[in-house]
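Morning run. Coffee first, then this:
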Amino acid sequence: MSKNRRQRRERERIEAKNATQIVKSTNEQKERASDPLGLISFACGLAAWGWSVIAPESSALFGSVLVGAAVALSVVALRRRFLLGNAASTTVALIALTAFIFFDWYIVVKPQRGKPFQGLLVHGYHLTSECGSLAARQRMPDWLRDESKGWQAQVDQLITEKLPAKDSQIWLGAIIYGKVTDVNTVAYQCTWLANKVGALETIVSTEYDSSLKHKDYNGPTYWFEPVNGKVDISEALKAGTPQSNIAIEDLGNDKDSTQPTQITGTVPHKH
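And here it is:
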């Protein structure tokens, strides 16, 4: 009788112990489920996106810090939620680090670095559109010439500070070679401006936005004036580039004509 009582008490003790462990385990799971780290990491990730995409003058560095905090907190939250061991935690951390590097560069850093260049490119488009309403042989309006020079100075400084030498070469090479009677004409100034816009478009598409539709800029423009009705373009063919952009001044047009006073074209080089 006493033996059965002892056995019953032992079973009750074991059952009570098991029940206590179950309750404790349930409470621990609830605590892990309500762990605020996951929510904080999500908030950091959302803040990073908002900072980099919505804010007009956002900092790529601050956005990267927010993304890094989101990733680190997520790893800690996963480890606490699933009680990961050292090996599993290391694996998760490495995967998260790799994902962070790619995400941070392509979603946060690269778009932010490209914003100033894209803004200047849009401004350049506006300037070239102003050229379309002007007669080619008239003098370039002072306001448009000054704005064009200011725009070029801004782009030049940004490229020098932010981009490698190869991009500086593209930008500096976007000029006009040749003797021109009046460099202040719309034809000359707008051709020069178009060269600069084309060069910047190529740079932006290469460095920041591969989906940007553009025509690759292939070098400077060679401007020629006919002599006795003939033009010698041999200098352009010596440039050493795959092709040359040619502008030939059409002296036959009336000075008051609104038609273009230049003929532009591209001459491919034979090797």
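The CA atoms of residues 141 and 186 lie 8 Å apart. Good start to the day.
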